[in-house]
Amino acid sequence: MTHRDHKSVVVVGGGQAGLSVSYYLTQEGLDHVVLERHQKFHSWRINRWDTFCLVTPNWQCRLPDFAYQGDDPDGFMVKDEITEYLDAFAQTFNPPIIEECEVTKITRRPDGCYFVDSSQGNFSADQVVIATGGYDNPIVPPFADQLDPSILQMHSVDYRRPEQMPEGATLVVGTGQSGVQLMEDMHLKGRDVHLAVGPAPRAPRRYRGRDSTDWLHDMGHYAITIAQHPNPEHAVTKTNHYMTGRDGGHEIDLRKFATEGVSLYGSVSGMEGKKIQFLPDLETNLDDADESYVGIRNAIDAHIEKHNIDAPSEPAFKKLWRPKQEITEIDCEKEGITSVLWAIGFRPNYSWIDVDVFDDHGRPVYDRGVCQQDGFYFIGLGWLNTWGSGRFLGIDEDSRFLVEQITAKAKSELKAAS
User: Fold this and answer.
1) For residue 33, with 0-12 CB atoms within 10 Å meaning exposed, 13-18 middle and 19 or more buried, which class applies?
2) For position 359, what pLDDT does the model report?
3) What 3-state DSSP class applies to 201?
4) Residue 137 contacts by C-beta under 8 Å, 6 or more apart in sequence?
5) pTM to 2 decimals?
6) Which residues touch 347 (CB under 8 Å, ≥6 apart)?
7) pLDDT tens, position by position, 277-321
8) Ramachandran bin of 172, using left for φ above 0, alpha for ψ from -120 to 50, beta for the remaining angles
9) Please, what are the domains in the chain?
């Protein structure tokens, strides 16, 4: 039989979620190991562009017993500052992490023990926490293969700076937080940018004297749990509102970029040769994004009025630009487009988990991260419990809760065995 190093808990993933769990496991004195495929905080350290910064203010960085202590709580840490913050957190407790260790398979024995196979040895565990996040496989549609190979295609995970892209124009596909920020990154460098606008909502950055996230926090928006949400399925699948923390933070109005020369289209629907097709949904997508934007402003207005808060007024929202027509096809050669930058997200990869914890669509099933398979957990996913679950804001609460469940199970089994 293969030798296995036994641990009470194996945590798979050495990002902020996995190490937050490790922190509380250490506090409880539970023997465990964290297995990280690359190096700790790899995604923050490696998979980010040069000008990357947080979208949420620094005050929302609340790792276990290690909240942001810098002198700019309302600012937005840039890439190096984020990794410095994370590394400093790890140094507070010296986690038992094995880096460059890829987990290749997890199975559950009939007796309830978990077997964890990895590139650096095999383990057995009473309990397992999956903290690998949902950013494993970059999404690129199948029809991308039909685009002329002379046009460079890159995914946002590989983008670092505008100079990577060949001379000529770039089509950025996707208007989630990454897509709009990469579009702006190139636009500010004077590059010719085209943008395929998807259905992502947008949000104000500052409104009536404060960052909108400050207002939403005070309004209890971030405390709403998925169990309390009126439309849980919509919450889990909804794209994040786009804005940016760049240069002190500002909102992103795609209509404004259109007035500055960025060419806007609807959602990409197909590619063939040097032709790219779009759905005629540009105006709808812009209007829907603005509806979300105005809805947040209105909610803040109502909160201010209800609590009689003294706050400066704001001018009414106005649409700066409207498309004259819906363009449904372009010729890259005529438009000078030499590259396409995909920013339409990622899919998780759980093919290495051979444990009955998934639904028919391959999505993990849990309640606050606790699976029906005894001793199996997930953490670090959006809306695990609240909006902040996949972010710095909610990771402390989520990790503390999971470790409470893990500790209770460990103590119960210890008592039963004695």
Assistant:
1) buried
2) 96
3) coil
4) 346, 347, 348, 349
5) 0.96
6) 134, 136, 137, 139
7) 999 999 999 999 999 999 999 999 999 999 999 999 999 999 999
8) beta
9) 5-136+348-417 (3.50.50.60), 138-342 (3.50.50.60)
Residues in the chain: 418
Q: What is the mean pLDDT of the chain?
A: 96
Distance, in Å, from the CA atom of 326 to the CA atom of 2, rounded to the nearest integer, reads 62
Q: In degrees rounded to 5, what are phi and psi of residue 298?
A: -65, -40
pLDDT at 2 over 80: no
- Residue-wise pLDDT for 158-199, tens only, equals 999 999 999 999 999 999 999 999 999 999 999 999 999 999
Q: Is 256 helix (H, G, I), strand (E, B) or coil?
A: helix
Angstrom distance (rounded) from CA 56 to CA 62: 12
Indicate the pairing of strand 152-155 with strand 62-63. unpaired
Phi, psi (degrees; rounded to nearest 5) at 181: -70, -35
Can you tell me which residue has the tokens 């100079």?
163
Could you tell me if 44 and 83 are in contact, meaning their C-beta atoms sit under 8 angstroms apart? yes
